[in-house]
Write a structure and sequence with these properties.
The structure is a single chain. With about 110 residues, the chain is α+β, with helices and mostly antiparallel strands. It folds into two domains: about 70 residues, Glutaredoxin; about 25 residues. Helices cover about 50% and strands about 15% of the residues. The chain has a four-stranded mixed beta sheet, with helices on one face. Strand 1, helix 1 and strand 2 form a beta-alpha-beta unit. It is globular and about 40 Å long. The termini are far apart. About 15% of the residues are buried.
Length: about 110
């Protein structure tokens, strides 16, 4: 398995945390030098992170990857009410990130 992202913290860090906590071995790949090739062939929405699974799937979108891994490794509840709370928290964090990055890069 491989996680493609830049050699920084950011949108892939929560994925790295989950994988570390679950003791999942994966390769952390710096996407910077190969970004053009990734965009041509593998990035559905043109951006990283990209998680390449053991069975050959390419997953994109940081929160979708996180939810997928959460379900795969037992960190995501089957209870709909609890799953909602997790999803709403993730969405709130995304709202915060959007405002934070907009402020910092304008």
């Amino acid at each position: 398995m491989k996680l493609y992202y830049f050699d920084i913290y950011g949108r892939a860090e929560s994925i790295r945390f989950l994988l570390a906590h679950a003791k999942v071995e994966y390769e952390n790949v710096n996407a910077g030098p190969i970004m053009a090739d990734l965009k041509k062939d593998r990035l559905e929405f043109g951006q990283v992170p990209l998680f390449h699974t053991a069975d050959g799937k390419d997953l994109v979108q940081s929160w979708a990857i996180l939810r997928y891994l959460g379900r795969t490794y037992g960190y995501y509840p089957e209870n709909a009410d609890l799953a909602y709370k997790i999803d709403s928290t993730i969405d709130a964090v995304e709202d915060y990130f959007g405002a934070y990055f907009k402020f910092n890069f304008e």
